[in-house]
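Catalogue entry: protein
Contents: sequence, fold tokens
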Amino acid sequence: MRMNFLTGITFFALSIILQFIWIKLQQRIHLTQQQKWYGVNIDTEIKAATPSMGGVVFLCLGLLAVIINFSFDSFLFWSLPIISGFIGFIDDWMKFRSHSSEGFRSLAKLKCQLILCAVWVVAVFLKGNLALWPGVWDLNGWLAIPVAFLMVAGTINAVNITDGLDGLAAGSFIISLGAFLILIPVENLNARFLTELFFMVSGFLFFNLRPAKTFMGDTGSHFLGGALAALCVMNGRTLAIIPAGFIFIIEMLSSAIQIFTIRKLNRKIFLMAPLHHHYQLKGLDETAVTIRFWLVHAVGSVIAALMLMMI
């Protein structure tokens, strides 16, 4: 317990210091991101001038976590968010270099994600940790792999889709960490993972609350999606992704529904997808949307977790 406390304080201090230095460096080299022309067009000039690769600090702290507590389990856990975050970093860097809102081609990025998820899930399977939920939905044999594969890849993209308002994705991720207190065994390495993630993201959120001094970019959202999925799958609780990722799943479903209805029915369900932009265009203040989504995520996560545990 004492070691986790000291680790947490260290990671929080490092997160604050590194984010502050990284923000100043990004401002100096104008490391910002071009806003999408088809976006909500709210506070466009402010957001266009905001540093957009705060997730780089997550990568640094994730690598530090591997080094200071090296073991196979630690390496396996952190490999998913770190490599996923690096894929997001390539996307962010290409956007910056091309002065465009479009970086890594969608299909190319998806292929990289799928290869990473496939290799990582197989590694967890070979270790013997793969299951939907202990004692109830154990999937023996190779059938476990495609289920976990789809959920891991989906989680990474769901967090990426949710990252669209100041503090929304980071705050929601911290709430997800709270849900893990009842979803996974909080002991040994799990306690350390949760502590390190909580304090590194809290340090980022300090600068990300509206008005944001930095955005996490695809680097950060891919990292957090990978971390959320890794906590569930490595503990043999793949279905824990549903309560832990409650708001992320809703956001991803809203985008999927919007795409389907536009292509098949030639009409929109939402003013804009994902869902947080729908409420922005309805005139709701950005901070109000963020806080309400946090509340929905907290309540939904608890209800879904209790239902899962009852089953």
In short: The chain has one domain: 2-310. The chain is about 70% helix and 0% strand.
